[in-house]
Amino acid sequence: MNAVQQPLRVLTIALGAFGACWAAPLSASAQTQAAGDWIVDTRLRYESVSQDGLNDADALTLRTRLGYETRAFNGFKFLAEFEGVAQLTDDFNDTVNGNTAFATVSDPEAFELNRLQVTWAGAQGRRVVAGRQRIVLNNARFVGNVGFRQNEQTFDALRIEARPFEHGAFTYVYIDNVRRIFGDDSAQGEWDSDSHVLQADLDLPAGRLSAYGLLLDFQNAPAQSSQTYGLRWSNEWQAGSFHPRLTLEAAAQSDYRGNSTGFDLGYQHGELAVRHDRWTVTVGGERLEGDGVRGFSTPLATLHAFQGWADVFLATPPDGVRDLYAGVSYSTRPWPAQQPVVFNVVAHDFTDDGGSADFGSELNASVRLSLNERVSLEAKAATFEGEDPRFADRTKIWFAVEYRL
Question: Which interval of the chain is the signal sequence (predicted)?
Answer without folding.
Answer: 1-23
